[in-house]
Design a protein that fits this description.
This protein has about 500 residues and is α/β, with parallel strands linked by helices. The protein contains 20 helices and 12 strands. The structure holds ligand F0G.
Length: about 500
């Protein structure tokens, strides 16, 4: 059956502007909305860290889109025909073919997830004293660069940090800053330039193809490698064909190919791009391929499975092919756009324009009475869990690190991320999210601060524990019960 692509543009007779789902749901998972008392207990036990909650206490899991996007019927069916072999699997050949078709790269090095690709890239290219210029870091990227002796330089434009902006491409690298940085530090200390598609930590914000071409030009001028983190490439390409004049109406496939063509290396977390597990590093350059190739069997597994189950490789190969389908890729950005606009109408501070992977609430404004040293975003995420049963993710100072003196390095932005994995939630669930956030906004003065009681030395947000600085969580739960009566 040939698919007709609608790209979320179906008009309603009543004039409403709401995203229309271009899929139907055939496998479902029941949800549990537990009373507020239990949510309060659960977040306490989790040390006010939503990573440590169990799903038995969670209603809508908006922690991440990583590995939680819905798979297609075609992906699931492919998993049953997987060719299970340690070496030379036909399933891997399908993955190589998908990478050639969608990314235009002849070499594919499979890895078990995105950060494993970062490990290999860092081991192959970074040494003590290296600098990596980029639009913005991702948590695991930064950790791998630093552990190998490198430092990052985030060369974004001023708009990137503006919460409410009309800039369609807040993920751009500032070309003038990049060139000045290269001249200051010397090409010998810059193993590569990194561009992250739909820049995660600043709200899933894309870069334009115009910007990428400018960065490519600079890379060529100085003989530098350009590496693309393509974990959210489909969404970045979707924004290009909807927001960049020169590319309006172009096909996703052509834009994806152009983005990859401008990159020497493309790596990705398949958990995000394709909903399967795994990841890969892809290139056309023989020299770069041979620099990395031997590290894959050492850290991941043989070159034709890379630590991923062969079934997942089949799902990945199929998922990559679906990344060129606008109805697949647009679903999450359209829901995010809807959510962001509705929250903005209510006066709730959110990152605008809406980006990829989730809606990002600005904790700096939401809980402006809580000092940044008391983890504003973490406080908001815990409060929202109590007030809704929805699990968000802290993306602020709790996800940052400390300096050599042991002081917190304050995050540029304090965000609560509410991820909307592809084709997982319904619009009424999004409405519930907006409604509970609205209630919390009107009761925001009840939210207080947190402090660490257990703090791991690296990536502390995953397993660290905090405690409240007063009994504000109890007060908030009481207010909630008063409002909603039945304590749900
Ligand atoms: N790069 C980007 C841009 C990412 O968003 C992620 C993961 C990774 C690399 C690492 O990939 O998880 O497969 O090891 N992002 C997830 C998130 C974890 O929730 O945003 P991974």
């Amino acid at each position: 059956m040939e698919r007709v692509i609608n790209n979320g543009t179906v008009k309603f007779y009543n004039g409403k502007q709401i995203p229309l789902e271009m899929h139907k749901v055939r496998i479902v998972q029941s949800l549990n909305l537990v009373p507020v008392e239990r949510r309060l207990e659960a977040i306490k036990t989790a040390g006010y860290n939503t990573f440590l909650l169990g799903t038995e206490d969670i209603f809508l899991d908006m922690l991440t889109d990583s590995g939680t996007n819905a798979m297609s019927d075609n992906q699931v069916s492919k998993m049953f025909v997987a060719d299970d072999a340690y070496a030379g699997s036909q399933s891997f050949k399908k993955l190589e073919q998908s990478v050639k078709d969608v990314f235009g790269k002849k070499y594919t090095l499979p890895v078990h997830q995105g950060r494993a690709a970062e490990n290999i890239l860092s081991k192959a290219f970074i040494k003590e004293g290296s600098f990596i210029p980029m639009n913005y870091h991702f948590t695991t990227t930064l950790a791998h660069i630093e552990i190998n002796g490198g430092k990052i330089a985030e060369l974004f434009t001023p708009e990137a940090m503006r919460i409410k902006s009309s800039d369609p491409f807040k993920g751009n690298i500032d070309p003038a800053r990049l060139e000045a940085f290269i001249n200051e530090h010397g090409t010998e200390n810059i193993p590569f330039i990194r561009m992250e598609a739909s820049t995660n930590l600043i709200g899933g914000q894309p870069f334009s193809l115009k910007n990428m071409k400018e960065i490519r030009k600079i890379a060529d001028k100085y003989g530098l490698i350009l590496i693309l983190d393509a974990s959210l490439i489909g969404e970045n390409a979707y924004f290009i064909i909807n927001r960049e004049k020169e590319y309006l109406g172009k096909s996703l496939q052509s834009v994806l190919l152009e983005m990859c063509d401008l990159s020497d290396i493309v790596y990705f977390s398949a958990r995000k791009v394709t909903s399967s597990r795994g990841g890969a590093i892809c290139t056309n350059r023989d020299d770069l391929y041979s620099k990395m190739k031997h590290l894959v069997p050492l850290y991941e597994g043989f070159l034709t499975y890379g630590g991923i189950s062969i079934r997942e490789i089949e799902a990945m190969a199929q998922g990559l092919m679906e990344t060129v389908d606008p109805d697949v890729v647009s679903q999450s950005p359209l829901f995010i756009d809807y959510m962001v606009k509705e929250l903005d109408k209510l006066g709730i501070p959110v990152i605008m324009p809406g980006g990829a992977l989730g809606c990002h609430v600005d904790a700096t404004q939401f809980v402006s009475h809580v000092p940044q040293s008391q983890y504003q975003a973490a406080s908001l995420v815990s409060a929202f869990f109590i007030a809704s049963g929805i699990r968000g993710m802290e993306r602020g100072t709790m996800s940052s690190t400390r300096d050599e003196e042991g002081n917190d390095i304050f995050s540029d932005l304090e965000l609560m991320r509410l991820a909307l994995p592809r084709r997982v939630f319904t619009l009424s669930q999004v409405e519930y999210t907006i409604d509970r956030l609205n209630w919390l906004y009107h009761n925001r003065n009840l939210i207080g601060g947190l402090r660490f009681i257990e703090e791991p030395p690296v990536l502390r947000f995953f397993t660290g524990k905090l405690e409240p600085l007063s009994d504000w969580p109890e007060t908030l739960a009481e207010a909630y019960k008063k409002e909603f009566g039945n304590s749900r």
